[in-house]
Input
Amino acid sequence: MDLTQVTVETHTPETEQYRQLVRCIQEKSDQLFRTLCVYVNRSNLATGRQVEVEAKELLNEVVVRALRGAERFDPSRQAMGWLLGIASNIILQEKQRRSLSRRREPFLQDVMIATDKFSLDDLLGRLHPDRSSSVEDVLAAREELKRLMVLLNEEEKILVQLSVLEQYSAKEVADQLGCSPGAARVRLFRALKRLREAASLRDNDDA
Output
């Protein structure tokens, strides 16, 4: 990755933190860019050739934010880790922005209406707590979801990821799986039923 492609316009004084970040960016620009490509791909922000385009834009934004906020950087920490943390925050913000901009049909809600809504509400609340939840609750939910997802096949894992965590519409999920929206609903219903049954068994074992 040629760092000259990255546009940096800051008026931050060149403190030691600033100089350390610049050195890291200059010396590890290729490594940083490759890592951001992985982040972009894994977060479903882009696919194919578009991954590198998104990663370049992400790198530009990371550099700008990092240098503008250089005074907040702790020189005792690894600069690369700090830069990647900024990248993760930018990706999260972008996914939230895209989520709000989509006009989705209520895919997950449709499936819940066709099932025992209250038990599914409880399951989804446990696996995907809202933003008001404590850090401990969020971490516990991630661990429980990780354990339960092992019980699903690859297609079911994709279904749960897209519909529950990413809030995709039935059409978007169907496009990803190469099936009709109706088939996607049926498959999601089965996947959630398996998760609910597995969660119930874990509760009984813990009782």
